[in-house]
Amino acid sequence: MIDKAVNFLKFYSEKHKVGYGIFLWFFIIFAYLIFITNWGFAGALNGQGYVEGGDNFGILAHFKIVKDKSFDFMTQATNWGVTLGRGIGSVVVALLLVKLFHKKTTIVAISLTLFGIPAQYLPHSSGYYALFLIMRTLMAIGGTMTIILTQPVIASFFNKKQKSVLSSFGILTYPLGTIIAILPFVTTNIEGAKAIVRNWQLILTILSSLNLIPLVVMIIFGLKFDVPKKTEITYAKKEENGFRILWKYLKTKETYSWVLLFGGWLSASVFPVIFTTKMFQDISGVTGFTKTLKIWVIIYLSAVFIGPITVGAYSKYNIKRKWYIALLLTLGILFYVLSLVIFKTSVTNEHTAGYIFFYLFGFISGLLLWGIQGVILNLPHEYKNNNVRKMCWMFSLIWGLGYIIFTLFTIIISLIPIIGNSLGYNNTLVYAIIGFVVIILVSLTSIIGIFMLKEPSEDAQTLPNWCVRLIQTFNNKEEKQK
Q: What proportion of the chain, given as a percentage, has pLDDT over 70?
C-alpha cells in the first residue's frame, strides 16, 4: 500500500511538477508562518515580571523573574536567543542537506519547532528560565530552517517566471505573522491585553502544535527529489564534506556581498517593527501614543500585501537589478526617518495632517523595504549555473550570517540603555538617538552590498520597454512644441 502511494506521488510530481511544487512550498511556508507568529507573540507575552504576593502572569512571572536591575536584560534575552537561533539554523540546514537531502532535513526542521510545546510547561523557577530559552532557541533553529528549505523547492519545480512570483509572495510570511501577533493587543483594552498575557501558555502551545500539520504532510507526501541520480553519484562522492564546502564559501568575496545586502536589508525592514514604539517615544519626549505607534507598525507591515504586484513585480523584466534595489532601499530608509520627524513635530501635537502623513510614510516605507525582498531573494536564482545545491548553500549563508549580524546589532541597541542606566546615566533621549543612528547606519550597508554584486544578466536593460517608450513619447512632444 505504501509502495503504491509512493509510486503515485513520483508519477504525480513528474507529470504535474508545478502543482506538486506548490503543494510542498505551501506547507513549508505555512510552518514558517506559524513560527513567525509564535516568535512575534513571545515578546508581548513576557509580562511585567514576578512580584511576591502580587497578581503574577506572563512568561517572566511564571519563571519568577523579579523586576530588579537585571530585569530589562532578562526581557530582551528571549528575543536574542530566538534571533541567534535563526542565524544558527540557517547554516545548519545546508550541512544537513548534504547528508539527509530535502525530505529528511525538512522533517528534522519542523520537528525542532515542536520544542515550543513543552518549553512553557517547565517548573515555576528562575533556574528553568535558561532551559526555556534553550528550547525556544531550538524552536527558532527549526523555524528558520523551513524558510531556507523553500528554496530547493523553488529551484527544482519552477521556471524563471514562476520563481520570481513565488519569491515575491514568500515575503508575506514575516509581516503576516507579526501582524497576527500585534493585532490582538491593538484591538483590545488594557484588561483584554492582560487576559491575553494570562493565557500565554495556551497561545504558545496552540501555535507550536500547528506545526504538526506540515510535519505529517512532509512525512507522508514528501519525496527525495534532490537525491543525485546514478550518473551524479560518482561526482557527489568526490565533493568535500559539508564543513569544507562551508569553508570554501566563507572564503569567497561574493558571500560577504550577499551578507551585507541581506543583513542590511533585514535591519532596515525588521528594526522598525522591534524598536519604533519605544524609540519614537523617547526621542519625542512622550510616554503616550503607544496605540498610534502600534498602528503605524501594522500599516508598515501591511504594505507588503501589495508588494508582490508593485515593486516586487520588477523581477519579471530583464532589467538591471542593482540600481533599482539600491534606490528602493534608500527611499525606504528615508521614509522611515521622515516618519520619526512627522511623529515628533506633528503627531505629538495632535495635528490631524500629521497623523495622515505619519501613517502614509509608514506605508510607503513598508512597501519599499518589504516589497523589494522578493526581488532580492529571487536574485540568486537569476545567476547562470546555479544548481539546487548551490542555491541551498547561498541562502543558508545569506540568512545565517545575515541574522547573526542582525542579532549582534539587536543586542547592541538593546544594551545601550541597560549599560547606561547601570552606570548611573539615565538619559533616554540620548540612548534613543544613538540607537536610531545605529539602525540607519546598519541599514545602509545593504546598499554597499548590492553594489558589490554583479548584474545577473549581461544583456539587461536599464529601464523597462514601457518606460523607455514613455520617455520617447514625452521627448517627441517636446520636440514638436519647439
A: 87
